[in-house]
Structure formats: structure tokens, C-alpha cells
Amino acid sequence: MKRRSGRIDRISSLPNDVLAHVLSFLSTRDAVRTCVLSKRWRNTWTIVPVLNFNFYEFPTELVSEDEDDDIDENIKEELKFDSFVRSVLENRGPSHLDTVTFRGEFMSHFYEPSMRWLDRSALLMPRVISAMIPVFEQKELNLPDSVFSCASLELLELIHCPYNGTAYLKQDSIALTSLKTIKLVNLALDDDFARKLLLGCPVLENLRLFDCILCISDISSNVLKELILDDCWLYQHMRISCPALVSLLFTSCENTIRIISLENMTSLVYATIDLSGSDDEEVFDNLPKLKLLSGLLNATYLKLLFHPLPELKEQLENDISNCGTFYNLKILRIGAWNMVKHFSLLALFLERCPVLKQLALLLNRAVIQEMPRQDVSFQIEYIEKVNILCDEEKLAIKLVQLLGRHVKTMGNINVWKYLDG
């Protein structure tokens, strides 16, 4: 085909699979629009391996200031989007679907349509499903069985729109034989779901939970390699036992001080544990025996943030004393309490880190003038780099002096101040 400029249309002569690959970088709406280019392009969009449905591409153009009219316009755009999604899924060719995504701030009346989208998408046997789940009034979220029985699915991402709180994710059965990664955002999970997930996903390697409510007592897996619990709420004691786990990220979780234990973490290399928790002292009432650090012994990188309250300090001292030696630990970032006043707690860590190369100290901002106990006795030959983050230079100087008594040689020493505000 020649254009009016005399140039040859070489793109249209490419094989179908190449054209489909090119279109996969567009949103599905734009990919469908290419059907008007020529007869050659009329059905190309039906074999694109990536479907990206984005509600934000269906803007509501409001012309009336009347609130009821605004609502009507919103509904029109939502109906238009629903019709578009259904049409694409129903007219899609039989070729393999790699990825399907749904993005948008969907409202409650979109719940039923979205379940139909997910059902139809799963039946097309994709490798990846990533979906924002609309708000709905029910307290439980039951996804189509096809989603949790899709044999081709390797990555599943479910994000619950957060307008009406958090919905419990319930599922009668889970059989995802190829699933390697699952990411859940703003959902509530209980023991029943966790058990079905871990049993029904025999090759699951990455479990990523963000902003979730967790009523889970046990996460045990022989195949899990990455576990992320970020900004979650825990409502009961949680035991984590994952011998194949390589990376653990446990940050900003509320109510975590008294309800976490780590066991059988023999493959762990990287771990970030944030137990700074709440400032409410009631959180620390009736603390059970802490069992945390023994699960981190094989790590080469650790970032540990602990609450400064004395109730936790005592627990940590007991846990450190009984945990053994960190023979592989090369990089340690530790903080959130005053390490000048409670230098003994830091000393307990350091004397169990014989090959430590880099030490970063994140000091509590409160300036404490009390000096530490003098019954600390340990000696380290060499630390390559010491970084200190604080807002009080005198505190950092005191800490360097204390370290100097126990570290024969320190390489680079850097002190940074917290940014104002």
C-alpha cells in the first residue's frame, strides 16, 4: 500500500504476530482504534496478547452543574466502559492471552460487571491478571471460581478500591497450579483463605500483601521465596515458617510487637523488620516470649527497627541472648531507639556479627542525656563503613565514642541529619 506522499506502508506488511506485539504496548482502547486504518488492520486487535482496560481513558465531560445530571453523566461513561470491555472480551480471537489489566476508581454498582470481566478473562487462560476491584457493600469478596482455578495464571494482582473499608477475600477452593506471584492490596484475609492459598498454589514463590487486615495465625510454605507484609494490621499471633524464603519485608505493620515469630528461615538472605509499631503502651501489655531473631541468623542484610519502650527492650535482650551468631551478616541497619542510653542492646547485636562490614544506625530523635551501662564487653576487629542518621550531632558523637571502645578499626564514618519536617 502506498500513501499520498509516495511512501510505502511497510508496517502493514509485517506478520500478524509482530503487529500484535506492537499493539500490546498500547492501551486496549487505542489498539482497537487501529481497526479503521485499513482492511489489513481490521481484526489485528483481536490477537493482541495484552489487554489493558483503563477506565481513566473514558473521561466524564460534564456540562451541567446540576448534581443529578452529573451522576447521569458518570453512569453513561461507566456503561460505555462496561460495554467496551465486554465487546473486546467476547470478540477476542482464540490466540493465547498473556496479560489482562483493569484500572479505574470503580464504584459499587460496578461490582457485578467486574466479576463478569474477571470470569471471562480467566477463561481466556492468561498468564497475568491485574485488577482493581470496585467498592461494594458486602463484607465478603467472592471472586469467580475461574480466577482461582486458572491453570495458566502465573501472576495475580487484586487491588480493592478503598472507599468503603476493607473486604474479606473468601474463596471456596483455590487451585492455581502455575501461580508464582500474588499481590493483594487493601483486603482482609483469614486463616481459611491463607491455608487454601498456600496449599492450592504449589509453586507460589512471591506473596505480597499491602494495607491488608490479617487474621492469620500461620504462614508456612516450603516453596515461598519472597514475603512482603507492608502496612498491614495483624489481629492475632502469626507464625512464619518458610525454609526456602530468601527475602522478607515486614514494615509499618500495626500491633506486630507481640504477635510475630519467625521459624525455619534457613535460606533467608535479605530481611527488613519494622517493629516500631504504635506509641500506645497498651500495645505492649502482656508481651509473650519474643521469637524473632533466631529466624534471621543466615541473612547477609538486615534492617531492624524496634520500638523504644522498655517492655520491648527486655524482650529483645532475651531474644538476642538466645539466638546464636549471625555468621553471614555483612550489612546491618538498625535503629528507632536511643542507642546511647541503651547501648547494651546494640552491643548484644554487634558481638554476634563477626563478619559485619557495614553498620547503619538510625537514632531515635529524642535526645537522652543518660549514659549507658559500663558492663558491655565485646570486641570487633574491623567495620568497613558506619553510617549514622540522627537529628542531634552530640548524640552521634557519643555513639561513635562508644563504638570506638569496642571496634578496633572503623573505616568510613558518615553522619547525616534528619531532614526538617
UniProtKB/TrEMBL annotation:
The F-box domain, residue ranges: 8-58
One Pfam family hit: F-box
InterPro entries membership: F-box-like_dom_sf, F-box_AtFBL13-like, F-box_dom, F-box_SCFL_complex_component, LRR_dom_sf, LRR_FXL15/At3g58940/PEG3-like
The name this protein goes by in its record: F-box domain-containing protein
